[in-house]
Amino acid sequence: MPPRFVPRALAGLLVCLAVLLTGCSSASGPASHASSAPPAASTPAWARGTATVPESRLPAEARRTLALVDRGGPFPYAKDGAVFGNFEGRLPRHPRGYYHEYTVPTPGSRDRGARRLVTGRGGEIYYTDDHYETFRAVLR
């Protein structure tokens, strides 16, 4: 084997490995925090710069909760519709009362669990599955 062939073969192998690893590392599924959104041109201004998830990719319980929000209830939890204070500061800052939160049931949980939908007066919808640590803008 000529000496020049070894570095070229090694470089080619490394490129193939990098391509394979990049393709395998992309997250998918409703629990993913990666953006599943269409290109930025179709992303509403309020959602830009935030991880996104299409409504169709939300867990079934979140889609049912969103349908209840759209209908105005009735809601299964007394705290549904309560003002969300955004104390963590992870959503854009707005006056108190701008955001409201709704419980997304977690199968098997004995309490309200960690999943919530948070809505804003401007039509924004955010989903969190880790009790306000991270949010994804819900795209409809």
Automatic annotation (TrEMBL):
Coiled coil: none annotated. The keyword Hydrolase applies. InterPro entries: N1-like (IPR000026), Ribonuclease/ribotoxin (IPR016191). Keywords: Hydrolase, Nuclease, Signal. Pfam families: Ribonuclease. Residues 1-27 form the signal peptide. The keyword Nuclease applies. This is Ribonuclease domain-containing protein.
